[in-house]
Prior knowledge:
Structural class: mainly alpha
Oligomer: single chain
Helix content: over 70%
Amino acid sequence: MAKPGQPDRAATTPSEEEAGGRMSFFEHLVDLRKRLINSVIAIGIGMVVGFALSEKLVDFIVRPMTKALRDAGLADKLIYTSPAGYLNLLITFGVYSGIVMAMPVVLHQIWLFVAPGLYKHERRAATGFIFSSTVLFLVGIAFGYFIMLPYILRFLVSFQGPVTPLISVNEYFDLILIVLLGLGLIFETPILIFFLSLFGIVTPKFLLKNFRYAMLIITVVAAIVTPTPDATTMLIFMAPMILLYFAGVLVSYVVLRRKQARELAGGEAH
């Protein structure tokens, strides 16, 4: 029990925790600066590690292309067309792989910046948010590498004509960058819908009612990301995007039900 003249800690602590933390505008700026610095440091460390491993990673990345060339009866070699071409590739690859490796830390910093404005029960989702975001991003990259790339490359190499293809490793890297990172970001759709639902911007009813507009956006994104002009490849891109959208609808439904349950429990408590 609290002493006379002192506030009852049992009465104040829950409300303070539920309120999340009240910060001034300047404190928000200081916190944002801290999160940005931590994210940049994490990306910098990831870039150093990525550059150290870049030769082995490049060898892994070019395997789908060399296999497609062998299957087409062509020389399984990629070239670079400038003296610094391969070095530039290693540096560029180190940068992007560093960003990927630092993604869990960056996501954690984003969450730490957002969390003070959320309720206690919402802050408990931090671990799940970081884990699911990282897993979905990596699943998107794996889907692109193991499923999309072999199909796309077989399709592209099949158009040989009377000339022999000499494929630049730098141009090949630009292609897979669009495919892999594009799919990695696309697979984050349920996480985006989770946050939009958490702040009451979208609901399951809204998402289902506007599915035709979502299909239009999915079609446009698939057309941009798909590096080949055939409809089959575009449909392969669209299929996981549609499934992820409906997974997001389910996530939104769960968020809404939990909100309603908490509001109902709060009303009964009063």
